[in-house]
Amino acid sequence: MLVVTTDNLPGYEVSEVLGEVIGITARSNNPFAEGIKSLHGGANPKMFECLTRWREEAIERMAKNAQNRGANAIVGMRFDHRDLTSSWIEICAYGTAVVVAAVPSRVGVHLAPAS
What we know:
Elements: E1 2-3, E2 12-28, H1 31-34, H2 46-68, E3 73-83, E4 88-102
Parallel strand pairs: 1-3
Antiparallel strand pairs: 2-4, 3-4
């Protein structure tokens, strides 16, 4: 599954637009419960690994939703987040599910110079 933040895929043609797809994950807003702060109040380097993993989880869920709709790509992917409560946050990945096909390569094709 191709997932891109751009609105098109060079070398591919969109043959069908299936609509918006989303992938959501919710996490504790308590950094100690998530294990991403040290006891001294500083950020733990593992925090960035957690944030990356949570975003990847949202993308995986979005891709699964797109695949279930018959898509083989997602264009215009973005992230959003919000506080659900004072204890929980939501991380959302969203984009447009599409069906794409590779465009035949034009290597070796020469256009006649303009006269």
